[in-house]
Design brief:
By secondary structure, the chain is an all-alpha fold. The protein has helices at residues 2-24, 27-32, 39-61, 68-87, 96-115. It is 79% helix and 0% strand.
């Protein structure tokens, strides 16, 4: 079971890398007001959602303790991120504020995962 959990952790990290990487590559475009949500950002957020749900299930099945409040906060942030990226995915330009919110929430999600013990 540990190998399967570690596999999903790796996939979860790939998802966050895709979402945050898509944001960081458009920082200059955000400053110019021409940033847009890339397909990599949407796929990264979806990967995070699927692998995160799988990780919770696998950890509970393996009798590991899961901090449900932490998972709930992370899930709420991810749903907001996913909603914003999904709704605005086809637009040529995304508002600077909205694009910044996605980057900020993504960063917050990372720090919650690492620092909340």
């Amino acid at each position: 079971m540990d190998v399967l959990i570690h596999l999903f952790v790796g996939l979860h990290i790939i998802g966050i890398a895709s979402l945050l990487g898509g944001f960081l590559t458009q920082m200059k475009a955000m400053g110019e007001g021409t940033a847009r949500f890339s397909p990599a950002m949407l796929h990264g957020a979806l990967t995070m959602l699927i692998t995160g749900v799988a990780l919770v299930g696998l950890n509970q099945a393996d009798d590991n303790t899961v901090n449900n409040i932490k998972i709930g906060v992370k899930l709420a942030l991810l749903i907001v991120i996913l909603g914003l990226v999904y709704v605005k995915r086809d637009e040529e330009k995304v508002d600077k504020g909205m694009f910044g919110v996605v980057g900020g929430l993504t960063t917050a999600n990372i720090f919650i995962a690492v620092l909340w013990t």
